[in-house]
Amino acid sequence: MRFKSMSGYSAQPFFLCASLCLLLGGCSDAETPVSAPARPPMSVTVLEMQPQIISATIEVMAQTEGARETEVRARVGGILLKRLYQEGEAVKAGQPLFQIDATTYEIALADAQARADMAAREVKRLEGLVAQKAISRRDYDNAVSADVIAQAALRQARLDLSWTTVTAPVAGTTGRALRSEGNLISEDGDSLLTSIYQLNPIWVRFSLAQSDVARLPGGRLNAAAISGVELLMPDGSVYPQSGHLNYIASTIDPLLGTQQLRAEFPNNDNLLMPGQFVRARLLLGEREGMFLVPQSAVQQSDRGHSVMVLGKDNKATPRPVQTAEWRGKDWVITGGLKAGDQVIIDNLIKLRPGMAVTPKTQGEVAVPADRH
Fold first, then answer.
1. DSSP characters for 221-285?
2. Helix (H, G, I), strand (E, B), or coil: what is residue 245?
3. 252-307: pLDDT as tens digits
4. Domains along the chain?
């Protein structure tokens, strides 16, 4: 019995369909998407807020000046012969600083001495004559007056001669010499030779804007409201000696809207020099319930200042805050936080509101949430 061959028209389609089904089944299994593992929460450092008692302060730019800045001027004219001090050194009151040519004044003194002696002799000679009424009382009185005038001229000549040696009027540190040897000094012209600065104590001059004054107790500036003054040096360190106010202006500068103040500080080691720029910190008493937050953790925008705090389910939550001044590397926060709040202090650039985080305290190694 023979069977008819099916290879020409029926077997081939059957095998093609079976192969296609197998291929499609294999591709479907290979391309089935596998869900990626969820990214773990970001690790952040948090700082728990605790209220603190902080001294209230106002910081402003200031400049130092000598407690006494005395100009040294020549009282007589002449050729400047010699400078008798080292520029910039400390001098004592009465110490010679400059020498002016004294020849003219020595001659003038000799002349005045001779006239004074002659006038004194004339008075002595006329005393006996007036007693004998050999001369009029008027002649004797004129002789006495001439003697007084001559003695005054003699005294002035002595002073002029002494003033050819220019001395320090006060003790302090000298400035540079403004006139050099050989210059002609005129007492009626520019007679300024140098200046002397008293550095201990030293004064610090600064101004407060009206907005700063409004922050003071009562909104007014008075010595009773300020308990002390501190200085912040250019390197950020605090000057070791505290000072006190010794001047408060009674008027407001109409151009700048500021009120001028001046404080006095001990300067035993001459750490401060006149003309130095520093920051003056006014101490205004103490404030309770303040918080300190690192400056890097406080963000600023057109809406004000804010921080990221650890919210419900360990999610980053923005919180607006009110700031006062800097205290070292921290902001003083006056509002917006409460005791126990945990402020995020790092990775702020990567954080977004509502993002889940893994918190850790400073010095602690973060533990992922799924391992708690």
1. --GGG--EEEEE-TTSPBPSS-BEEEEE-SS--TTT-EEEEEEEE--TT----TT-EEEEEEEEE
2. strand
3. 888 888 889 999 999 988 889 888 999 998 888 777 888 999 999 999 988 899 99
4. 44-53+288-367 (2.40.420.20), 57-66+197-287 (2.40.30.170), 75-99+166-190 (2.40.50.100), 102-163 (1.10.287.470)
